Amino acid sequence: MSGEPFDTLVDTAKSVFDAASHKPLLEAWQGLGLAEIRADLATRLIAAGIEEGPDESRFLINHVLAPVRLADALADPALFSWQAADELAALAWRRLARVPLSQVLGSQPFWTLDLAVSSDVLTPRADTEALVEAVLAEAGEASARLVDLGTGSGAILLALLSERPGWSGLGVDLSAPALAIATANADRCGLANRAEFMQGRWGAGLADGSVDILVSNPPYIVSDILAGLEPEVRDHEPALALDGGVDGLDAYREIIADLPRLLVSNGLFALEIGHDQGVTVSALAREAGLVDIRVLPDLAGNDRVVLGRRVGAANQTDG
Ligand code: GLN
């Protein structure tokens, strides 16, 4: 998308517009102290529909102050510069337009990592940590070839590699801009020596029996539901990472059908699912001949992961 000259033009126009538009906010803060600006920003965020306005006001201020601490800046007005106020207004302006906080700040904590994010990738969710935990609990420490289909920011791949020094990983994504973010994140996490990335559609570019552990958080939102989601998700996260088609299961059909080919015998797979997809995704896995299929919850108690294995060599019935 961003390669198109017209889109580039529109993006440039938008950023000029955005940069110009935060000036009224800066003017509204003229003559106010940091405590008053913080309160004003919290009120504006709440009015924009952001319930966590007070917390987010603090996060945004901390971001522009760093490394200066908020308590110090509240005590000493000289520590809150005009440049910091200008930067705060620019960030706040984007957040008030319901750009996700992660994209405004440019990064998002996930697992023990801090990952770069942009509108080209799904912001890593805490829910997805359930998938990381499930794989760590299920897989041994022995060296393994890990593949993450639709890797996006690289969150799942990098979290798992960070916990298993003997593993190497490959992240696949259809989106070139997403792969650029994932590659940067591998560097940022010091994992570039064990992480590779490849452009492709799910497992299509991978050899038979080349995967010990396969993970994926594919798009699983029912298309019709997308339009009703929060503006942060609907307008600012990539539809490619969210839209699961008419029944939300398009990506699972493609991925699961290919698992018996991709996995080594006894190979493990773990897929993130929507809270109401445990039965349907398990059934797809069973139909594909996969075994040991289980549904696991996230921390909120919602079904979030389907995992299982390719049948082991000793139990193989299909010759
Ligand atoms: N859990 C995400 C959301 O609700 C969706 C992620 C996905 O489609 N893989 O926004």
Automatic annotation (TrEMBL):
Keywords: Methyltransferase, S-adenosyl-L-methionine, Transferase. Residues 128-220 form the Methyltransferase small domain. It comes from the Bacteria. One of its GO terms (biological process) is methylation. Its EC number is 2.1.1.297. The keyword S-adenosyl-L-methionine applies. It catalyses: L-glutaminyl-[peptide chain release factor] + S-adenosyl-L-methionine = N(5)-methyl-L-glutaminyl-[peptide chain release factor] + S-adenosyl-L-homocysteine + H(+). S-adenosyl-L-methionine binds at G150, T151, G152, S153, G154, D173, W202, N217. Pfam families: MTS. GO terms for molecular function: nucleic acid binding; peptide chain release factor N(5)-glutamine methyltransferase activity. Gene3D superfamilies: DNA helicase RuvA subunit, C-terminal domain, Vaccinia Virus protein VP39. Substrate binds at N217, P218, P219, Y220. Methylates the class 1 translation termination release factors RF1/PrfA and RF2/PrfB on the glutamine residue of the universally conserved GGQ motif. Belongs to the protein N5-glutamine methyltransferase family. PrmC subfamily. PANTHER family: HEMK METHYLTRANSFERASE, MTRF1L RELEASE FACTOR GLUTAMINE METHYLTRANSFERASE. This is Release factor glutamine methyltransferase. It comes from Maricaulis maris (strain MCS10) (Caulobacter maris). The gene is prmC.
